[in-house]
Every structure is written in C-alpha cells, then in structure tokens.
Write a structure and sequence with these properties.
With 256 residues, the chain is mainly alpha-helical. The protein contains six helices and four strands.
Length: 256
C-alpha cells in the first residue's frame, strides 16, 4: 500500500476507532514503562560509567602520546649533545694548529657555543624527564580510577542484565503486540502521540477524563468539553497539558 493510499484508508477510520487504537497503544506502552521502571537508574548509571571510562581511556592515551613526544625530544637533545661533543673535539684538534691568536679565539668561541649547547640540552632533558615523571604519576592515578570504574561497570551491568533477563520474555511479547498495535494508527497521530509521551513525565499521552479532570494533569475539564469528548467527532487534547483525551471514565473499552 502506498503512503497516499494508507493516508486515505486512515482518513476513513472513525474517530472513535482511532482513539481506541491510541488507547490500546498507550496501554502497551504503560506496561513497557512499568517493566523498565524496575530497572531504576541502572541504565543511566551504566551509560555514565561507560562515558567516564571512555574519558579516562582518552586521557591515558593522551598522556602516553605526550610521554612519547617528550622521549623523542630527549632523544634529539641527547643527539645534539653528542654532536656538540664531537665538534668540541674537532675544534680542540684545530686549536693545536692555529697560526695566530685570532684563529685561536674564533675556535675557542665556537667551542664555548658548543659547551653552551650541551648545557642547554642537559637542562631541557632534565625538564622533560620531570614532565615525564609527572605524567607517569597522572597515568598511574588515572589507571587506578579506571580500574575502579571498570569494576563498578561490571557490577552494574551484571545487575542490569539480571533484571532484563527476568522480564525479557514478557517485554518481547509486549513489543510484538505493540508493533501490531501501531499499524491501525495513522502516521500523523503516531508522531503526535510519540511527541507527547516524550514531553510528559509519566509517559501518558492518551488519558481518560476521571472525576471531571484530565487523567494526566488532573486539571478540571468543563462539562461542554466532556460532551465533545464523548461525542467522538474529533480528537480533543487537554488545554493544560496537551494530552489526548480519549473518553470520559466509564465509557472507554480500554483502561490505562
């Protein structure tokens, strides 16, 4: 069936039947909500722990990269020191064969520059080694936290898996029923229903009027509006909370 044909088919469905379908869908979703409510904050706690662990892992990786960079820098400075020592030996030999004081002083100046280069390299090597020690300490602390969080995650996941397993068959059955229950609901209404469910705390998008009040927000529904709801001529929503008012208590065939 094309989308246009489906829309036309849904258009021919009486409002009462549309509301009945929405009530049936709400009933199934409320059952799923109850099953998932038993899990409490465990799913969120598991996600938070996974995010925290991922953050620690990124942090350790960054420290490792920094240490690798510092080790490469130390290696280059050590090579610079060796090169400077080689040049000093070379200049020392040349100094033995100078012809005048000017050449002697020029070579002495070059030797002094190379000695300065060695001192600078030694200083930078010490500074880099200190940074490595600091980062290694940071890594040790981060890995300790990482191990703790991984143990916490394993425990929380175990608890969650146990709860899920206890209700897995029931949940799977309700999900199968829900899939069938969405078929008679036109896409426009299904989108509105999903949006309302996402905006309310208790997940009730379709409610009855009970004791002259909206079954979702408990605000009073005027008698004339109740009469419009009972007539099932059009879909009416609560003017306070936006929930769909399917019927007045005592007249609906499906309870939520």
């Amino acid at each position: 069936m094309t989308a246009k044909a489906a829309a036309l088919a849904h258009a021919d469905v009486p409002v009462a039947a549309k509301l009945e379908a929405l009530l049936a869908l709400q009933h199934l979703d409320s059952q799923l909500d109850e099953i998932r409510r038993v899990r409490g904050d465990l799913p969120e706690e598991v996600r938070d722990l996974e995010d925290e662990i991922a953050g620690y892992e990124v942090r350790v990786k960054k420290f490792d990269e920094d240490i690798q960079g510092l080790n490469d820098f130390i290696k280059s400075r050590k090579q610079a020191s060796k090169d400077a020592e080689t040049l000093i030996k070379k200049y020392d030999e040349q100094q033995q064969n100078v012809r005048n004081n000017r050449e002697f002083e020029a070579i002495a100046k070059e030797m002094e520059l190379q000695r300065l280069e060695i001192q600078i390299s030694d200083k930078k090597i010490k500074e880099s080694q200190y940074q490595i020690d600091v980062k290694n300490a940071e890594i040790a602390g981060t890995k300790s936290k990482l191990d703790e969080r991984r143990k916490d995650l394993e425990t929380k996941k175990g608890e969650l898996d146990t709860i899920i397993a206890e209700n897995e068959e029931e949940e799977r059955g309700i999900l199968a029923q829900r899939e069938l229950a969405t078929e008679p609901v036109e896409p426009r209404l299904l989108t509105a229903y999903t949006r309302i469910r996402g905006n309310v705390r208790n997940g009730l998008a379709v409610v009855l009027v009970r004791r002259d009040a909206c079954g979702g927000c408990f605000n009073t529904v005027p008698p004339q509006r109740q009469a419009d709801i009972i007539s099932h001529k059009k879909i009416i929503v609560c003017e306070h909370c936006g929930r769909i008012l399917a019927d007045v208590e005592g007249r609906a065939s499906v309870n939520v």
